[in-house]
Amino acid sequence: MRRAGDTLGSASMRSGGERRAARRRTAGAPDGQAGGNAWEGRRVRMKVEITGVDTSTLPVLSNKEMRALFEAMHRGDPTAREKLIHGNLRLVLSVIQRFNNRGENVDDLFQVGCIGLMKAIDHFDLSQNVRFSTYAVPMIVGEIRRYLRDNTPIRVSRSLRDIAYKALTVRDRLTAQRGEEPTIEEISAELGVPREEVVFALEAIQEPVSLFEPIYQDGGDPIYVMDQVKDEKVREAFWDDEVAIRRALDDLGPREQLIVAKRFFEGKTQMEVAEEIGISQAQVSRLEKAALRQMQRHVKPGE
């Protein structure tokens, strides 16, 4: 998916077409007034940066205005549906907050949520004594969950995905009730599913991480995932000439010698080395790279 588009078009499409329509609908909102307290304002501004939707200009529809627009839409007013979409985009932004910990692109979730919103608008029954938000939220959530279920980077069986998303739902609910995250055992008991299946299902939907993904940077050299991976054969993989290495090591300072020895002869991670010698992992990374550059000049003097 791409970032939200530029204009509002008709909203009569479904499935892939409706998703494309959502991209066009989410940026060109009509002017209005922003509501909510100061905290809500900060959250909305954050979402402006993420999705490209200027929610500060979106109208805040009262229940009376909402009903009037639904009645106009049912009479065939072509603009009423668009106004209902604009007036409820904040509802979509609120819903996608629940999925912040999934590692998904927020723009994509917002677009999918807009599809759920449009479906809710199309199917809402004014004769039922229910607030629109009460009806719309489950439809928006359901649309997003279907998207997450069907768009994992690695194909996972339907049964595993179902267990995983049920487990995430239970986790979110119990966390909201207790103020702390439940254990796997508690989630397992709540679902009536063996603990091992819950763990396996949750692991199956995790997004793969690149070995070159930076996990820490304090202004110096970044630390990558690969720096945390212990390699028992790193000595043989990196160095062929033991004598040349020993000579190069002799020219290093005591701390650099210790770091290189632990990293490349003992195969320890930078975090393990940092804990042993009492400095930060970032310092270990910088000292290690400086030491390797110096050693390379000795091992390969012609380069």
TrEMBL record:
Domain annotation RNA polymerase sigma-70: ranges: 108-121, 269-295
Keyword line: DNA-binding, Sigma factor, Sporulation, Transcription, Transcription regulation
GO biological process, one term: DNA-templated transcription initiation
Family membership noted in the UniProt record: Belongs to the sigma-70 factor family.
Keyword DNA-binding: yes
Annotated spans, Disordered: 1-40
PANTHER family attached to this UniProt entry: RNA POLYMERASE SIGMA FACTOR RPO (PTHR30603), RNA POLYMERASE SIGMA-G FACTOR (PTHR30603:SF17)
SUPFAM superfamilies: Sigma2 domain of RNA polymerase sigma factors, Sigma3 and sigma4 domains of RNA polymerase sigma factors
Superkingdom assignment: Bacteria
Entry function: Sigma factors are initiation factors that promote the attachment of RNA polymerase to specific initiation sites and are then released.
GO molecular function: DNA binding; sigma factor activity
The name this protein goes by in its record: RNA polymerase sigma factor
NCBIfam families: PRK08215.1 (NF006071), SigBFG (TIGR02980), sigma70-ECF (TIGR02937)
